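Build the 3D complex.
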Amino acid sequence: MIKAVDLVKDFGHRRAVDGVAFEVEKGTVLGFLGPNGAGKTTTIRMVAGFLPPTEGCIHVKGINVASDPVAAQKSIGYMPETTPLYEDMTVSGFLRFLAEVRGFSGSERNSRVDRAIERCFLQPVRNQTIDTLSKGYRQRTCLAQTLLHDPDILLLDEPTEGLDPNQKQVVRDMIKEMASDRVVMLSTHVLEEVEAICTRAIIISAGKVVADDTPAALKARSSKYNAVTLAAEGTGILPALEKLPNIGKVQTLENGKIVALPKAGKSIAADILGAAQQHKWKVADIKVDEGRLDDVFRQITTTEDTKKKEVA
Amino acid sequence: MKEAASHVFAIAKREWRAYFDSPVAYVFIIIFLMLAGFFTFSLAQFFEAGQADLNGFFQWHPWLYMILVPAVAMRLWAEERRSGTIELLFTVSVTPLQALLGKFAAAWLFMLLALALTFTVPVTAAYLGSPDMGAVLSGYLGSGLLAGAYVAAGMFTSALTRNQVISFILAVVIGLFLILAGYPPVTDLLARWAPVWLVDGVASFSFMPHYEALQRGVIDLRDLAYFASVMIFMLFATQVVLKNKVGR
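Done.
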């Protein structure tokens, strides 16, 4: 559905996006991750046909976005990062305007506006002017606008930014519900969001793709993946653990708990439980670490930064 | 084609409503009518002149438009760029040309509405005497075209910046130039050192000779073509600015 090849975008002498390439198929919720200023918004703007790429090209359903943005935009619903809205219009007036621009009129227009209002839970504010809305409603009004023409592709730039936890949940549920027969591409720097709704995550840093995988696989890259934290009483625990073949490193924490890190790709929980039984340790607590996305994020994006600094 | 027309229409409708959803439309129309009346009846001494023509009415329009039209047009793109809604507008299958035609149509129609509401002036003249109705109509035609040219210029300066004040000032300066370019003190100044063709060239940019011809009741195709070409040039320049500037 979306195919981006070697995208480059320069702003004057600054290169904001530097060779980004990806391909997305139907049914994917693609999370676009990266530190601030990494090029997420610029990339999404290029896919939406708002900015032309300096080099490279994007095809949306086989249409080149830069050469025919009007045709490509027909299958795209785009929510910009700043959730721009016409402040002096009412919610329903705003949606009616966009439905008209999308080519609907009369009862078709009204029913589409009604459905978008329903799907985004905007009924209570539908006749309110936009400048009186709270942040959550503004966000949802801008989201409703993307659904009017039932697009195959949704581009959402930080859709949950600035919402309270309940509102975030509402928006995430909406995105999940919409994703089944579409492509949803969303940018965020909230990592829990990626874990909660994305089926694939691309991390970009300084304009380059530095990781492209499922959230689970990304988590597995964490150095703490499958690490075991153990609270146990007994004698000779540390030396016994160090002898186990799959364990790379054992540390004792300040609170007395023991952390065992596995050798790369190994699973050690069973070995440790076996050893505990054998030596008759009293195990109070044992926890296996699933890896943490923010560790991986930090690992990947900071090493990229330091690499860059070394080159400079 | 049909789709393009519906885009233009939807955008024009939104802009039109944006004028009337805020106090802008009402404040503007009231001030416009008050100033037009003041200039006509007090400064031009419509009654004292004792002539049943509308020269005293029409001759002030270029100056009135110079100040007031930029106030109507400055919002058109500057606001769109400041608030970021331009990102929305240009990602929903609307081309810059369609958007600017819609906005231009709305702003020009709004000016024509304000102009139409001055109908009491010719009615007064017709009541007191018998003015040349042909000249009145061609005067209105000229004033309407003049308003369109100012709107196009104001829209162009609005696209140049996200700051409405800058847009306003630039539009006033362009308007001033287009009025004064053919004004004798200015042409005389130029004629002291410039060759005749240059003086004539600059002077031919001016609104005034074309507008005055229409005011006298002379409808010459060349005058109409002049106003049309000013509008088309300004719209084209707006499109170039939008294509090169948006989002960058």
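Residues 222 and 296 of chain A are 5 Å apart (CA to CA).
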